[in-house]
Design brief:
single chain, mainly alpha, 75% helix, 0% strand, extended
Amino acid sequence: MKVRIGLVAVGVLMALWGGRELLQSVDVRGLVRLPLWLGGAVVVDDFVIAPLTVVVGWLVMRWSRRPGAHRTVGVVRTTLLYVGVTSLIALPLIFRQGTGVNPTVLPRDYLRDWLLLEATIVAIGAAAYLTFSRVRASSGDIGGR
């Protein structure tokens, strides 16, 4: 019980310290925009990312029910996961490129680099898919499927 109380106290102190730092480092205009940005992130997550994830997951599972797909569904899921994660990391950089007080902060062509990264991930995923789809049925497979 004492450990829990101590952890709660440390958590409250850290939250108060973080709030103080936020109020000292961000101007009033930024404090007004912060809830709007956080609310926008919640809306995008709830109405774009979550439904898209559910639909893609449903399509992959429906596709995986066909004969022989059980060997390749992991490759497809992993490829989609890496494409999604790298896209979530790269999109803010692409949208903010060249804007702000110092446009030299983001001098690279992030769109080109992101597209090359995604093409590389998809190519590796396709190569793995082709490799696993050609693997002969192992002795543990029922009916040779």
